[in-house]
Amino acid sequence: MYKLIDGEYVKDGGELLTVEYIEALLQNISLILHAERGKFYPDKDFGSRIREIKREPFEEYAAAYIRQALYGLDGVFVKSVKKNGNEITVSLTINNEDREVVLPFENDI
Prior knowledge:
Layout: E1 4-5, E2 8-9, E3 11-12, E4 15-16, H1 21-34, H2 58-69, E5 76-84, E6 87-94, E7 97-104
């Protein structure tokens, strides 16, 4: 898979950079969690409902919605979710490796 940053392919000279399996999976997880669930026509279950959260405890609701969004990904386990201003940090275990995905949002959520 090719490396993406902010939805853009990354080049080194004229060549597109590639990433390993887990890095590609992290890119896909970020994409899934940023997409609004129900808005992607080919798959109404694609995306997350994070932006719908209006109640406390935010992290618990976010963890539930993130688990729902990532349900079909084999080997992915959501360990914890932390909110800090307009960022959410998701701690994951992917095939027994601990990783994090940081989700920046333009507005406070």
